[in-house]
Design a protein that fits this description.
single chain; about 280 residues; alpha+beta; four-stranded antiparallel β-sheet
Length: about 280
């Protein structure tokens, strides 16, 4: 089980006004999700998973995913996401005994959740409900929810060997606005800058790429889940001005923050990051 100091998960209500496809999104915690309006297409290894309004799914941790969120007029796209520590999945599966755990962590959908399981998801997702419980009881409730998802076909795959990139991403995610440098990160890993640079290169990445990507993933989350002005979003992820973060955001995702929140009157294909027709073809 987890340590006695148990951090209660905080749900995220993701809203999106414009249709867009986001590539190489990485989450540092597994997510149980319910699409509440619109449609969601998740791709991993070129295998699409399509979720419609009312569907539940499981998104794995530390696995780059392509996600296309599709609003259905007149409503915005909306999904409820509940992050749950990986250890609780593993504890729940150990308790079940007979669950077949996939060898790789991949997105999964459930067959229709029973009414009791759907009610438990709603309960765990409501702000304050789990926080009012003793930590041990909150863990049991979450493990019960994980068990329901597993019984309905959504099982989290085995944890792959953690990469240095994943550990660095998790550190930056805890303080994306921090004054991060290669030297600072190297000290936290108790290694030289040259060693950190070499080990990241062996994983086909670099410190600056991970820093920028982690910040942009966080910016996307803030734009989708809050009403913070873009100027405040910029400060939250370590940029000095809204124009700077908007430029980086559009470079990374192919659309502007305004498109994500409000959506254009007519969808515009912007750059290689928007692959609407291809994702649709795979999903049908």
């Amino acid at each position: 089980m987890l340590d006695d100091v148990f951090r209660i998960p905080t749900r995220a209500l993701i809203r999106q006004g414009g249709r867009a496809c986001f590539h190489r999104l990485v989450t540092t915690s597994p997510l149980l999700i319910q699409v509440q309006s619109g449609s969601k297409i998740v791709m991993s290894d070129d295998k699409p998973l399509r979720l419609e309004a009312g569907d539940y799914g499981l998104l794995p941790d530390y696995r780059p995913l392509t996600m296309e969120n599709i609003p259905k007029a007149p409503q915005k796209y909306q999904t409820l996401a509940l992050p749950i520590p990986r250890q609780l999945f593993e504890d729940a599966y150990d308790t079940m005994g007979s669950v077949a755990v996939p060898s790789r962590p991949l997105p999964a959908s459930t067959s229709r959740l029973p009414e009791e399981a759907a009610a438990l998801f709603e309960y765990c997702s409501q702000p304050g409900n789990l926080a009012r419980l003793p930590g041990a009881i909150a863990k049991v409730r979450l493990m019960e929810l994980v068990t329901w998802f597993a019984l309905c076909g959504a099982v989290l795959g085995r944890c792959e060997s953690p990469r240095l990139e994943d550990r660095l991403r998790q550190m930056i995610e805890a303080d994306p606005a921090g004054a991060w440098t290669l030297a600072h990160a190297a000290r936290m890993f108790n290694m030289s800058e040259a060693t950190l640079r070499r080990r990241l290169s062996a994983e086909n990445t670099a410190f600056s790429e991970i820093l920028s990507d982690t910040r942009m993933n966080r910016a996307l989350a803030l734009i989708q889940t809050t009403t913070l002005p873009i100027a405040q979003v910029a400060l939250e992820v370590g940029y000095d001005s809204p124009s700077q973060v908007s430029a980086r955001f559009k470079e990374r995702f192919g659309v502007s923050p305004r498109h994500v929140r409000s959506g254009p009157e007519h969808f515009e294909r912007i750059g290689a990051e928007i692959e609407q027709s291809g994702a649709d073809a795979l999903a049908r």
